[in-house]
Amino acid sequence: MLDVIKNRVSFYIIALVLFVISLIPAIFIPLNLWIDMTGGVQLEYNYTKDLKIEDIRKQIEEMSKKLVSGGESIITSMQVYKISGENKFSIIAWFNSGDMEEKELDSMKNTFKAEVLETLKKQDSTITETQYINIGKNFWDYIKKTALLTFAISLVWIGLYVAWAFSWFATGISPVSFASITILTLFHDVFVAAGLYILASFFFKEFQIDTFFVTAVLTILGYSINDTIVIFDRIRTNIAKNVKTKKKPDLKDIINESINETLARSIYTSLTLFIVLVAIFFFGPEAIKWFILVMIFGTVVGTYSSIFIASPLLYDFNKNQELKIVEKKKYNPDDKIVV
Predict the structure, then answer these.
(1) CB-hemisphere CA count at 13 Å for 261?
(2) pLDDT tens, 11-33?
(3) pLDDT tens digits for 73-101?
């Protein structure tokens, strides 16, 4: 039988190392932001002739140097890539908006759009624009505020729900400990998954931080809590079973027993999801690869914390508590209040 409680310090150290590894890129590595986080444009074109994407990239970059504001180039960086399986390619440009008004910035974007098409027509007169996406410079501020607010509200409500769910069956363990440990492990899972993704985005520029990243981080909240609640519920059930059979309950043995009883279920469930996510990552649409990578990190970290962090923390929080079942007081209709 796997003795998680005995080796819990080692598991805590691993979790701490993961947290520190994730903290370093979050603090020291510049975020590799997509245009929906910084402001910019994405243009998509159809073509019929054979085109060399590298030649197009050089021509567009040379042309974009002419777009200046205050003596500085308005375009900070650019990507040109072919859309696999189709006669299409896309151009993405990041704009340095600075103190520019939104109207002036839009004018610069429209100028860039027109000059790009003119440059491309010289290569192939049949090239046509099929898509134009313009992201305003204030969009990232809005996403950041709403994402942080959503994250905070989600943690609070999850904590309140867990406290309520584990308050109906008193076991000598405070429902607050269930709730606080759940919130702590969820924060760990989300932070580590996000930090690992930021680290990956530093080495692989195609993994950028965008609204898919924010959505994936919030999705991890919903998934990571699943295994934790299952194990907590088994711990509660086993405590009740020990108390009702008049056995002297030992919290260490109960938690180890509960983890081992749910271990196969936790691993199989997570492994199934992991295999599906990996398959989508390698063979699915390019547009959601970033979302999938965050989910892969979240699945691995969430499974680890549910088994090796949450339950041992529950032991450390309550190892000195007396385990018991508190029966609810039954209502007796014969009881009268005499005034």
Answers:
(1) 15
(2) 999 999 999 998 888 788 877 77
(3) 778 778 787 776 778 888 888 877 666 67
- CATH 3.30.70.1290 for domain 40-135, yes or no, is no
The predicted pLDDT at position 12 comes to 94
Show the tokens assigned to 13: 């150290």
Only one residue has tokens 């501020």, namely: 141
Residue 281: partners with Cβ closer than 8 Å, 6 or more residues away: 289, 292, 293, 296
Considering only the C-alpha atoms of the chain, give the largest distance between any 2 of them, rounded to a whole number of Å.
98
pLDDT top residue among 57 and 274: 274
What residue ranges do the domains of the chain occupy?
Answer: 8-29+139-318, 40-135
Looking at residue 292, its amino acid is I
End-to-end CA distance of the chain: 61
* pLDDT bracket for residue 339 (50, 70, 90): very low
CA separation for the pair 210, 189 (Å, rounded): 19
pLDDT of the residue at 9: 93
Would you call 131 helix, strand, or coil by DSSP?
strand
Q: For residue 67, give both structure tokens.
A: 């777009």
CA-CA distance, 268 to 245, in Å (whole number)?
Answer: 32
Q: Tell which CATH classification among 3.30.1340.10, 1.20.1640.10, 3.30.830.10, 3.30.70.20 matches the domain 8-29+139-318.
A: 1.20.1640.10
